[in-house]
Design a protein that fits this description.
Quinone Oxidoreductase, Chain A, domain 1, 7-stranded mixed β-sheet, 16 strands, GroES-like_sf, Rossmann fold, 356 residues, 2 domains, zinc ion binding, Alcohol dehydrogenase, alpha/beta
Length: 356
């Protein structure tokens, strides 16, 4: 089969690799119909995630069809259309029993495209299939569903829920990429008083407004002052970091009010300074997190009911064999306007026919 393989920082290619097979009784093999590229994949290509070994197939998000299952799989069978979660869960360890699947001690957690071969391929082996695959209703199309593999549960759990967004709050989202936009969309479910988006790219700020941001600020033009002006000097109740660089994390801590929440969502490859000399007195709650995907069934129900604007985040579509071009477009988002790129022949054919 063909797959997108990481060969070390700055080195990758779409190439032939062996087909995956069943290695454990709980495994399923899924034929990938639709997949996408995550900002985390770009961090891997830069060398920011050293645990990823050269030779690993990247990707941790997909929609596809089950083609083979191990003898221990009970909830899916060949022919089922499924969402492949970015997190795999053994279901037995202490953390899985608490719903903290991202911290799984039984061989799960974030493993696809990280510790084992991932979803940017024609086929993928999915361990712990009973808890790591979600059967999809016919009414949900693949382009929308694939966004529930990672970005929506990540934004919702690590950003909105960890940040404890409440009705009437002033919420700031720093970084209006796919995760930040999903955070804006899901924060709106809690009726905040206002949402402010901060980014460097005018196209992303425009997308943030379309998804419900009440105000936007260019990151180079003193967004701290805008937040202060809009809150009478108090600061935001909740600030979410959705970039993953030291400068934006430190910006978030400057914009939050005393007693407020800073929810870090971004993947950081460099140390950030925590200015405790200023923050110790402010009664802040600062959270970090890897998504657990416990919210995926809830988000899937909301998507089926038309409550999530998933498709509005997709700006570019490609066939699977257009992976290298898709990476190029996604990595140059400031020039291309890319938000979320989706790859997959079946999905693409459906969109083309509908648009025609």
């Amino acid at each position: 089969m063909k797959a997108f393989v990481y060969h070390g920082p700055g080195q990758s290619s779409w190439e032939d690799v062996p087909d995956p097979g069943i290695e454990d009784a709980g495994d399923a093999v899924v034929r990938v119909d639709t997949t996408t590229i995550c900002g985390t994949d770009l961090h891997i290509l830069k060398g920011d995630v050293p645990e990823v070994a050269p030779g690993t197939v990247l990707g941790h998000e997909a929609v596809g069809e089950v083609v083979k299952v191990g003898s221990g799989v009970r909830t899916v069978r060949p022919g089922d259309r499924v969402l492949v979660s970015c997190i795999s869960a053994c279901g037995r360890c202490r953390f899985c029993r608490e719903g903290s699947y991202g911290q799984c001690l039984g061989g799960g957690g974030w493993i696809l495209g990280h510790l084992i071969n991932g979803t940017q391929a024609e086929y993928v082996r999915v361990p712990f299939a009973d808890l790591s695959l979600h059967p999809l209703p016919r009414a949900v199309n693949s382009q929308d569903a694939v966004l529930l593999a990672d970005i929506f549960p990540t934004a919702y759990e690590v950003g909105v829920l960890n940040g404890q967004v409440r009705p009437g709050d002033t919420v700031v989202v720093v970084g209006a990429g796919p995760i930040g936009l999903a955070a804006i969309a899901t924060a709106r479910l809690f009726s905040p008083g206002r949402i402010i988006a901060v980014d460097l790219a005018p196209t992303r700020l425009e997308a943030a407004k379309e998804l419900g941001a009440d105000a936007v600020a260019h990151a180079a033009e003193e967004p701290d002052r805008l937040v202060a002006d809009l809150t009478e000097g108090l600061g935001a109740d909740v600030v979410m970091e959705a970039v993953g660089v030291p400068e934006t994390f430190e910006m978030c801590t400057r914009m939050v009010r005393p007693g407020g929440h800073v929810a870090n969502i971004g993947v950081h490859g460099r140390p950030a300074t925590l200015h405790l000399e200023d923050l110790w007195i402010k009664n802040l709650t600062i959270t970090t997190g890897l998504v657990d995907t416990y919210s995926t069934p809830t988000l899937l129900r909301m998507l089926t009911a038309g409550r999530l604007p998933a498709s509005s985040l997709v700006t570019h579509t490609f066939e699977l064999d257009g992976m290298e071009e898709a990476y190029d477009v996604f990595s140059r988002a400031a020039d291309t306007g890319a938000l979320k790129v989706v790859l997959g022949g079946k999905h693409h054919d459906e969109v083309t026919l509908r648009d025609a």
